[in-house]
Amino acid sequence: MDKKIILKIIAVVIIFSGVSGVLGYWWQRQLEKGYVYQKQAINLPPAINLDGNQENELKLPPIPTLPESAIINTYTGQIIELSAQKLVLDTNYGQKTVLFDEQTDFEKMFVPKFPSLPPVPGSKTQTNTNNIPEPEKISWKTLLTGQKIQTFTSTNVRNQEEFKADKISLIVKLDN
Fold first, then answer.
1. How many CB atoms lie within 10 A of CB 173?
2. Would the pLDDT of 15 be above 70?
3. Rg of the chain over all Cα atoms, to the nearest angstrom
4. Residue 54: is its pLDDT beyond 60?
5. What is the pLDDT of residues 116-144, one digit of tens each?
6. How far apart, in whole angstroms, are the C-alpha atoms of residue 81 and residue 147?
7. pLDDT score at 2
8. Greater pLDDT, 79 or 51
9. 50 CB burial (10 A radius; 0-12, 13-18, 19+)
10. CA separation, residue 97 to residues 67, 89, 150, 158 (Å)
11. How is the chain split into domains, by residue range?
């Protein structure tokens, strides 16, 4: 007797599901016939015009620059001009004139293109730092325009456009 009741309940559920599915399909088709899509214009920002001729041009905010710290003893950049007693360096903070003499140390500093991460504490895996050569002494005549260098000085050169360097390092990136 319990089996008959369970079978009747299952039959009623299946029939009810089928009837509600058919009614839902019919109702959806009726709604689609009478539904009108509203056509509305979308206001997009104007395209960026690189020529500057368009009046309604999208204005992008300026890229922020990093402020200089209170004490600066080093600048890194590309050599723009080079002579026997000075060079002009293009840095993130503008052009700097670097003076040097016979007491200034010149070296070639090797830097890996992709630095490795330090080892996890407790692991026995060693980082391979043996492939990086030690800095080499060079002459100022080795330097060429377009090369990247780093200058070092013992004095604070903040807000100075011209300063004397104690050491100038030519940066050579290694392929690793």
1. 11
2. yes
3. 36
4. no
5. 777 777 776 665 555 778 899 999 889 99
6. 10
7. 84
8. 79
9. exposed
10. 20, 6, 13, 13
11. 74-118+127-174
Tokens of 150: 């780093």
What is the phi/psi pair of residue 5, to 5°? Answer: -65, -45
Six token digits for residue 174: 């290694």
**What average pLDDT does the segment 35-47 reach?**
64
- CATH code of the region 74-118+127-174: 2.40.50
Q: Which two tokens stand for residue 48?
A: 């960026």
pTM for the whole structure: 0.56
Q: Residues 84-95: what's their mean pLDDT?
A: 90
Whole-Å CA distances, 66 to 56, 114, 174, 176: 31, 24, 28, 30
